[in-house]
């Protein structure tokens, strides 16, 4: 009996020392686990954040190894680094809503409240047949105030989700494609979004889909609160018909990222995301209400749907 108790105790401490899939496993200032659950690999996103990526997502196309040779008059040393997989890799595949909890979390990364009159609730999020549905319902009485600026009165309960994976554009991952198909509400007071925002600071922010109560999609890149690039695209039947909203982001130089924006494969514009290199970002899909989209919003229910959301990146080492 005594040896059995010791055995199970050692199992517990072993499990506690490993980060779960998508969990943080390293970075400056990190004091938690630095090894990953089986079937996952600790991948460095940047100096501050490494996370456990499923092996299946960790790159498949080519295998490269780097060789460094140092020659002096007296000796030659050859060092071959461990083989690494490079090439294009999928971070979130088009079927992610079929295994929601492997790829997505409920709410915003910081909780339930943000800049409009909707408070997010898990039960306003549903998935069926690979489609994510967020539903906003008008409340019969006010539910206090948002805890986030500008602290509007809460008049809706609605849905938000954020990806477990984060986006960081750097030497290791210099190219990213992020896209999805959406049916986005366009009536006054509805404020759907598919967007990226900094995990450690604001900015960076890149809005891939943002309708503010009409049929104009706002592609925005926030370099600061007053330094913003916007490309507008009219999508007349955005609410009733699936349309694809897409960005392609490339590391342009040591500090800056170039972002290209597309609707249904048509290029709409490009922004200089100055200073976005090595700034990790959350991926968020949310149905906010009122705020910048006008008020009053709808008296009944509003839905916002997403499918075939895809995130992929190139890996150079
Ligand atoms: C409000 O949130 C949306 C995403 O829902 C974001 O695109 C926008 O930049 C935010 N606006 C302000 C003024 O905070």
TrEMBL record:
Organism for this UniProt entry: Drechslerella stenobrocha 248
Keywords in alphabetical order: Signal
GO CC entries: extracellular region
One Gene Ontology MF term: cellulose binding
Name of this protein: CBM1 domain-containing protein
Record-annotated CBM1 domain positions: 17-53
Pfam families the record matches: CBM_1, Glyco_hydro_16
Biological process, per Gene Ontology: carbohydrate metabolic process
Residues in GH16 domain copies: 46-317
Signal peptide residues on this chain, from the entry's feature table: 1-17
Taxonomic superkingdom: Eukaryota
């Amino acid at each position: 009996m005594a040896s059995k108790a010791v055995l199970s105790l050692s199992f517990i401490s072993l499990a506690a020392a490993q980060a779960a899939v998508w969990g943080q496993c390293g970075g400056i200032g990190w004091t938690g686990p630095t090894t990953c659950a089986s079937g996952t690999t600790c991948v460095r996103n940047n100096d501050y954040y490494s996370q456990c990526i499923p092996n299946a997502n960790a790159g498949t196309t080519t295998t490269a190894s780097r060789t460094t040779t140092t020659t002096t008059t007296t000796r030659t040393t050859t060092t071959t680094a461990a083989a690494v997989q490079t090439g294009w890799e999928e971070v979130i595949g088009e079927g992610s809503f079929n295994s929601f909890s492997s790829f997505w979390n409920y709410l915003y990364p910081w909780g339930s409240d943000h800049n409009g009159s909707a408070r997010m609730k898990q039960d306003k999020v549903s998935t069926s047949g690979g489609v994510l549905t967020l539903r906003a319902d008008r409340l019969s009485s006010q539910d206090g105030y948002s805890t986030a600026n500008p602290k509007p009165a809460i008049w809706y309960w609605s849905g938000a989700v954020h990806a477990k994976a984060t986006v960081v554009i750097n030497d290791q991952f210099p190219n990213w494609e992020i896209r999805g198909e959406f049916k986005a509400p366009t009536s006054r007071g509805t404020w759907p979004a598919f967007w990226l925002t900094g995990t450690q600071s604001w900015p960076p922010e890149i809005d891939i889909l943002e309708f503010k109560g009409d049929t104009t999609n706002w592609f925005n890149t926030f370099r600061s609160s007053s330094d913003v690039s916007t490309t507008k695209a009219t999508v007349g039947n955005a609410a009733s018909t699936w349309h694809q909203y897409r960005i392609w982001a490339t590391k342009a130089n040591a500090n800056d990222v170039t972002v290209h924006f597309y609707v249904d494969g048509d290029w709409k514009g490009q922004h200089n995301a100055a200073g976005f290199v090595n700034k990790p970002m959350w991926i968020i899909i949310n149905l906010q209400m009122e705020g910048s989209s006008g008020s009053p919003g709808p008296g009944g229910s509003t839905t916002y749907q997403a499918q075939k959301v895809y995130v992929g990146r190139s890996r150079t080492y």
